[in-house]
């Protein structure tokens, strides 16, 4: 097809009139909020048209054209407005200009002019937008200076995209179009280039055609009689044939199809021979097909061509051609400068040897993640931590070890691929950054494709089993490991920049010669050019370093007059969240089928709206129900965590979903349930906006579902202790429900022959109505954000530094305290609460009776006299049997009372709680029994030692009974006697060690015991709603206390609650009462008041802890139970509340609020641990002292007997031993006799005629002691 410029409008005139000759500046972060209407168009061009020699008429409309293209609206809208202006004759004076535009220009011409003015830094983004919008990309390669316009497009083109138009810029140009694969991928993506020749084609065009035809698998040429001079082919046609490359990519055979148009049958045969001869001479290895197009047979012919081209595509090898294998370097010359080729990038990775995981490249990030996991132990305990306990010292040593490993990175060699990235940063060019990002994606996506294929093979070819599931899980985890993007490189460099060496320089500076300012400047350019940043890493779920991020954004968002708006989005995976944000705000978030957003990303934008200048931060989150959740650690309840994150960090939370479903309501309810308890200082009140996708219903049809969601949220907030209204925390208005039709339409694949189309042969393209409604939605969202509310007064949104700090604090709170998010929905939450109430009711009935019976048995067992192992066996058997009987009975009663409509796992959890309750009481009864028998057990150790030495003496005397006195004495010298005694005493020491192990815990085990007891107490405290008080404030305070105390995996050794302790000081906030206008602006008084509050609360906490620990020490406690810890925590909570209320009630100028209780709780548990540790050491020393005294006594006795074996001496030693034994037994039985005496006096004092004391001595003491003496004499006689 040929087209010519008109004398009335030259190409030069066209480019000059449309957008002018000077460059246009485009801020990549700025977007327009007004729809590009005809009225707006007229207002934008009116001033230019009034000039005497107008130029750049459409320059003011440039940002609006960017907007409509970003919303996948073709630039044809501009042509339509020109036609309407001509029809209405809106501009009489310049009517001829617009008439010429309409007569000679098409939308394709205006697109060429538009692309020519797109700034270089924004060009690749605009081209990718055109590809996504299915808009053909024109490449203008004229035979003059304007060919640079086409070369600019060609050099930037990475994705290839058919158009059929004829305009002023039509000759000597190429349209390249890209057609996505069919829905079931039975047809691969197709690239089609359509070439428009002129009589005087440029050499640039010829060179480009030669390159493109080399890679073509199918070539179609249109021939008419204009291509012949008489019977011979003219020079222009022969030149066109010569532009076709003889060489074929991969050595495959092309199909060359020649279509004759407008030629009679007799002439066709003659012309056909000429063309066949020419083609056969040149294209020996190509398939030729020549056809005449007859009007009434066109459809049948085109169907044949479709079928033939489809089969040719299927049969062609190497159909997947990478654009980068097509080299335009000869054409572009110096205009194309790749700092890094694809091969060089792959080689830089290959230098590692075998690349296994991301830690091979990003070792600093790996160490940082490990360090953060170790630090997490100070806040939350996992199952793994319970099984493999580490003390705080061990954890700190591990942290120091990995910090040392990070610093040692500075002593290693630079990593080649990181060195390439460093070169990108040093160049500070967004084009290089984007190229690096693209090459990173290309390289690692190849690995991901291979892994995905393996996963599909296992899924499709094997029956599901444990082994196949394990294999798939391993593959999924590998996919997560190798899903590497440029954001991983940014994160690595940020971490390296924060690792300081001894000389004061960073590791980043040492290895890659980049300082903080260079890195911040490069990252700033990345953001300023409209690229998104990853704020929450997708695997580790770690926030990007907030100091670095805050510093960069503060430089960008330095205009304090701009109002900050933060907007977040949540919704199911693959629901089009990123696509929606890109259309709304031109964010540039990654989009694809399936999971494309991992973690959370942020994009910075600014705009002017209703005379206000706005800074907007847009947060795009990973989709709910993500396929990665079950394959990655730390992603438990990720959906609800992200929802809560959006609620606590945004003024606008977009809920992007295909309908207002029960699932949507459940997620909001569960996530909102703890907004009150987790609110952080100046908590923002988010407005929830529902964007319902793919909806053709009227808005009224969704009203019942919306009202149901709002009502459920209200009920949920009403049930929260101390919460008065949902409106205190979130805004849910009916005006914030927005309906959107499909973003993409689906149709049959036009490239398929009609006879071969099946239901799966579909392809997707942008829908026409969707982009039109985006503009309206954008205005409505911004309007909602600007509605006056507490958000505008909150310090969170005053500046970006405050927001970034808030964002970090919120995520840490959610990640640490978000254990309540495991509930599936609000119904489950209510069932769980009801179940817990029923379970706890057994504490006052069955479990109470069980405990009383156990205590009675303990009293009975301990009243029998000295301890023996049979007592323990009897008591243990009783506990086992009674526990089993009562626990089974209680569970049966529980199942009878609980509703069958409850979730099965709720019922199972109830059974678990009942079993745990009995287990706990059983453990406490055993502890009580052990405590009661402790003194008896301690005397048992002494008795056992005496028995061992006595038996040893008896054995020696028995073995040497026939020896004379002198022989006996000579055999048992002093050294021999000492050797024999020490050997026997080693057994006593072993007995002692075994005994001590049964009584006390080593330091690590004691730490774990305290940690588990307190953590179990906290979990129980969170589950039980304290309703002993009718005070709403008390309820609210208790709820906040239990939600905000953490469950660390280690014992945090918080030895002091000094005012200098940052966590403790920051946890107490004093604010001016906003209802008191008379308060001065001077903060001196408030700071003094805060110091008083901190000191008083600190003193109260210390006194509470001191009383608890004094009690433990006085009882010489060796262990605690979680119920004790639960009681102490309740006391701590109550005492802090009393102090807080005393301050709030004693004056009305200031309001005291406590944000966190972890410092107080950690201080208490450490003090309890210290008390137990000291008590243990004291008890252990006492036992050792007793044993040492016994050893000295027994050694003397042992030595006296064996040194003199005469009967007189043995008898003398025997009576000495008897005397000491009687005295010891009297001491042991003293308390026992006193108890019996007291009981007898109470029962028989009035009836007993004799002296009760004498009677008891006769009946009890004498009989008992005689029995002891007989036993001892029997032993001695045996000796």
Automatic annotation (TrEMBL):
Residues 561-673 form the VLIG-type G domain. One of its GO terms (molecular function) is GTP binding. Transmembrane segments: none annotated. This is Interferon-induced very large GTPase 1-like. It comes from Gigaspora margarita.
